[in-house]
Design a protein that fits this description.
The chain has 137 residues and is α+β, with helices and mostly antiparallel strands. It contains 4 helices and 7 strands; from the N terminus they run E-H-H-E-E-H-E-E-E-H-E.
């Protein structure tokens, strides 16, 4: 199975930061990248997934993250990267990071396999909820 990779602009969009911010992180050694055959800088999907998870664990207020609370509705489709997939014989738990947000979805193992979900894959999470739990910080 080939490893999916992202151009700088794609990776920056997934993380919710500018291309320049992502290039600075690459130049500083925070995010591994390589040159493709066409000379473009690319980030391997699993590396981007691991980095996205680290950013999400630091919280939305971490340096370099962008709050999208004012521009993204909970009913929207959120583009992000799969950071983990845990499967058993019936169900799969799929974790994603969409900008500063970490989402977890439960689905059948068959559905996860058919979608080819694994760390490093770009995916869209469609969020629709009838109940929202609110808690104090």
């Amino acid at each position: 199975m080939s490893v999916h990779s992202f151009r700088v602009a794609e990776a920056a969009e997934v993380l919710g930061v500018s291309d320049d911010t992502l290039r600075r992180w690459i130049d500083a050694g925070r995010l591994p990248a390589s040159r493709s055959g066409d000379g473009r800088t690319r980030v391997a999907g699993p590396d981007l997934a691991a980095f996205a998870r680290t950013l999400a664990e630091q919280g939305a207020g971490a340096p370099g993250t962008v709050s999208r609370a004012t521009s993204v509705s909970a009913r929207n489709r959120l583009r992000g990267i799969v950071t983990a997939v845990t499967r058993d014989t019936v169900m799969a738990q799929v974790e994603m990071v969409c900008g500063p947000y970490r989402l977890v979805s439960l689905m059948s193992s068959e559905a996860a396999a058919e979608l080819g979900l694994e760390p490093g894959v770009l995916a869209i999470a469609s969020v629709k909820s009838t109940n929202v739990v609110v808690e104090l910080p």
